[in-house]
Amino acid sequence: MSRAALLVLADGRFPAGGHAHSGGAEPAVTAGHIKDAATLEVFCRGRLHTAGLVAAGLAAAAAAGLDPLLLDDAADARTPVPALRAVARRLGRQMMRAARATWPGPELDALAAARPRGAHQPVVLGLAARSAGLTPLDAAYAVGYENISGPATAAVRLLSLDPFDATAVLAHLTGDLEQVAEQAADAAQRAATEGLGALPAASAPLLDIAAEAHAAWPVRLFAS
């Protein structure tokens, strides 16, 4: 049951809106930071260990049963750029719609009522994982994978990158993904007793700067 639910949640076809977002890949391609499979791998690894780790920690904590409203505030504090906060809540609204249709439950309903304009997407995903009977580690894996699969998929469109090469990048990052997921799940466990300050708060200033600039582009292929 749980293993099957994890496959559904992590599936790129799950209607959570992620296909419209590049995870920072579009501005990185324009700036010349991503040019081929090798530079895509560098970008994804850096994203995974910073923004991905933070998101995975929040999702794991939500799946562990920590207060989602406090986690949403913690997500705000860890997202200093307005453009990324807006994206996270937009994706959270879409994730909430998909989650409530797939694994309905009172905790999802309560969060939707408390945050009608959307909670941060990792918090919603973690609560969806909890509603599906998944573990905090499962939630961390799903979020971590999403943080690298989004840019990899976007790079195929942005660079006409060979899809086989993009998939190979994801395969090369499986060890990093396991490390980040385990670190996030451990932080969520500690946060239950030590407080939310135990959750990861890594930063990626270049991603933040690029996201704010990208939001002002008059023409773009991806929403973020």
Q: Compute the number of helices.
A: 11
Question: What sequence of helices (H) and strands (E) makes up the elements?
Answer: HHHHHHHHHHH
**Average pLDDT over all residues:** 95
Find the count of extended strands (DSSP E, 2+ residues).
Answer: 0
Give the radius of gyration. 16 Å
As residue ranges, the low-confidence spans are none
Give the % helix: over 70%
- Overall, the morphology is globular
Portion in beta strands: under 5%
* Terminal Cα span: 33 Å
Structural class designation: mainly alpha
How many strands, what sense, and barrel or not for the largest sheet?
Answer: none
3D structure, described in words:
By secondary structure, the protein is mainly alpha-helical. It is 71% helix and 0% strand. It is built from 11 helices and no strands. Helix 3 crosses helix 9 and helix 5 runs parallel beside helix 7. The longest helix has 27 residues. The chain starts with a helix and ends in a 10-residue tail after the last helix. The mean pLDDT is 95.
